[in-house]
Amino acid sequence: MRTVGVEEELLLVDPRSGEPRALSTAVLAAATRESRGRAHAFTKELQGQQLEFATYPQTGMKELGAEIGRHRAEAARHAAEAGAAVVALATSPLPAGPALTEGRRYRWIREQFGLTALEQLTCGCHVHVSVESDEEGVGVLDRMRPWLSVLLALSTNSPFWQGNDSGYNSYRNRVWGRWPSAGPVEVFGSARRYHRQVSDLLDTGVLPDEGMVYFDARLSRTYPTVEVRAADVCLDASTTALLATLTRGLVDTAAREWSQGEPPARHGVGLLRAATWQAARSGLDGHLIHPVTMRPAPADRVVHALLAHIEKALDDNGDLAQARQGLAELLAGGNGARVQRQLLRRTGSLREVVAACVRRTQEGP
């Protein structure tokens, strides 16, 4: 059974005002003190108002969900020690200014990318699924491409930007898409062609290193995994665990198709970009682009098509019942974008939206 690991990026906010606070250095210092010099799960990110953690590789999704919840609780404790709170929102509902993390690499990014870098206060969720080789990994990437927009739709959790409703369910995706290497990619066909593409990108001088190859899904440069990077950070830890379950099912399904010589769908990058835009725009609250037909269809129908596509893999992993239940609950109750808008309608205050989401990040729905 393939292992799965998750990286989540969280916002650090003022516990009273809900505004982002650039306190990642103090939060990491608190984590280091508690760990007494041992390694811990937390790292800094591009902006000082962000905190990232990574789980261990797991085969059981129940165990993975428990670890995500545990790290969120640890992050909340360390943040409180630094005078902040953590919240699993993919963009800040309240206005925020830039606070880029110090360091030579981050300074280079600021000088190279200007306002694009300054405005990148966005939080994503990255799912790592183990693969046997780069060849298998590229075979998986080629066959997963049409389905990544559905993962984005399930996770959308960033409707607000600088104090306003963006009109999107994932405005993070729109801001993130400003990076030159972000988004869907073409069919590679082999590991050699994949690595050649990465090498050619670096040779342009536009990117500082392989860490900024921001494909929606890529071969990890650190682990023997496929790294799926399409999703917003999810408001609820249970949604993150569901996302990881579905992602493993997609990897298993794509790897089986690759091993059996089934060719990948040849949808062009332009069509995939349109599907990504639609997923960011409507999330689960409208139509999506169906990954097979590349035509609009109701979101629930597309989500059930994803479930049918990976059903055998989910069943083989013992995840099918859990995935069915999780998807049914998500479609009925809504993801983070829907919850945030419901909170605003009820309270009339973006500050109250943030406060409610802080509590939900730590305690669950």
Structural class: alpha+beta
CATH class: Alpha Beta
Relative strand content: 5-15%
* Overall structural domain count: 1
Whole-Å distance between the termini?
Answer: 30 Å
- Please tell me the overall pLDDT: 97
DSSP summary, beta strand count: 11
Task: Indicate the radius of gyration in whole angstroms.
Answer: 19 Å
CATH topology: Creatine Kinase, Chain A, domain 2
Measured as a percent range, the helix fraction is: 40-55%
**What can be said about the biggest beta sheet?**
7 strands, antiparallel
CATH second-level architecture: 2-Layer Sandwich
Q: What is the global morphology?
A: globular
Structural commentary:
By secondary structure, the chain is α+β, with helices and mostly antiparallel strands. The protein has one domain: Creatine Kinase, Chain A, domain 2. 49% of the residues lie in helices and 13% in strands. It has 15 helices and eleven strands. Strands 1, 2, 3, 4, 5, 8 and 9 form a seven-stranded antiparallel beta sheet that branches. Strand 2 and strand 3 form a beta hairpin. Helix 2 packs across helix 9, helix 5 crosses helix 9 and helix 6 packs parallel to helix 10. ATP-dependent carboxylate-amine ligase which exhibits weak glutamate--cysteine ligase activity. It catalyses: L-cysteine + L-glutamate + ATP = gamma-L-glutamyl-L-cysteine + ADP + phosphate + H(+). Its EC number is 6.3.2.2. This is Putative glutamate--cysteine ligase 2. It comes from Streptomyces lavendulocolor.
